[in-house]
Write a structure and sequence with these properties.
It contains 7 helices and 2 strands. By secondary structure, it is mostly helical. A two-stranded antiparallel ribbon has the order 1-2. The longest helix has about 40 residues. The N and C termini lie far apart (about 135 Å). This is Urease accessory protein UreD.
Length: about 300
């Protein structure tokens, strides 16, 4: 079935019930292309702004100017709202803000572009000449009148570094005092001997007690000397052995004890059989070795 969409008749009384002297003119079929008119509904609505936001200064720049003037920055949300004092909350009049003395701006003759200078170099010189230009650079830049904030970790580290420096100074002072005392003792001995200095043979000297903060690296002795003695020296390709090697750790023979009876089964594998069988094989092995040694002595 066809779907019939009836038009809504609105304002029908205005169309046919007109005054006798009224002249009805037809509406324009289309708008003239040369006329660019927009309806009021198509125009974007202007955003409402509060009176306190009339100042279009960027907040970051305003914050920097306040810091330069010595005003303590507020700790809270930076939404542009001014912080009310206690007097304003109680209804009293707050004192007017302190006015900074106006400084006469003197034009720097060096801040002029030089002939043949690039714009990038000129812009860099201008940035360096700005009073707050140091804030854009990395690093700790100290600003007069502004207290730097430090975390607990930074305070603890700075305190630790200061203690280390003091300890290092004390250690160096103690070493200098010890050396001065040694020199004074040496001079006294020379005066007692009539200005002659005796050179005594150097023997094993006692290890002096380390001062506060000294380590083994500060001593004159080589800390690796003990290990160098224990370790074997590297062998060359054409080195000739002068003597047979000496065993520092003498190997012990393994004896197995069963009910208080010792059985000599040294150097006999367990796969040979029982303990008695292994002991017999050990005796036969020793006899063969002794006969071989006696035979070799006879040939010499």
């Amino acid at each position: 079935m066809p779907h019939k969409h009836t038009r809504k008749r609105t304002g029908g009384a205005k169309d046919f019930d007109l005054a006798p002297g009224a002249v009805v003119k037809p509406l324009a079929a289309f708008e003239h292309p040369t006329v660019f008119t927009k309806k009021s509904s198509d125009q974007p609505k202007k955003r409402k702004r509060n009176a306190r936001n009339e100042d279009d200064t960027p907040r970051a720049f305003a914050r920097l100017m306040q810091m330069q003037a010595g005003v303590k920055p507020r700790s809270g949300l930076d939404d542009g709202a001014s912080r009310k004092s206690k007097k304003q909350k109680l209804g009293q009049e707050a004192p007017p803000p302190p006015t900074m003395p106006s400084k006469t701006i003197t034009s720097d003759p060096t801040l002029k572009i030089q002939p043949g200078e690039r714009l990038a170099d000129f812009a860099a010189r201008v940035d360096q000449a700005l009073p707050m230009g140091g804030l854009t650079r990395k690093g700790n830049t100290k600003i007069d009148g502004i207290k730097e904030r430090q975390t607990k970790t930074e305070k603890r580290l700075k305190k630790m570094y200061a203690e280390w420096r003091e300890e290092d100074v004390r250690r160096k002072d103690a070493i200098e005092e010890f050396q001065e005392k040694q020199e004074e003792l040496a001079e006294e001995k020379e005066t007692e001997l009539g200005g002659q200095s005796l050179a005594f043979p150097e023997g094993k000297r006692k290890k002096r007690k380390r001062m506060l903060g000294e380590t083994a690296m500060d001593d004159d002795e080589d800390p690796w000397a003990v290990l160098k003695e224990r370790r074997e020296k590297p062998k060359g390709l054409h080195d000739v052995v002068q003597a047979p090697p000496t065993l520092k750790v003498i190997p012990k023979e393994k004896f197995k004890v069963r009910n208080g009876a010792k059985v000599n089964v040294a150097n006999v594998p367990a796969n040979a059989g029982s303990l008695k069988r292994r002991e017999e094989l050990g005796d036969a092995r020793r006899e063969v070795i002794e006969r071989y040694r006696s035979m070799m002595k006879g040939t010499r």
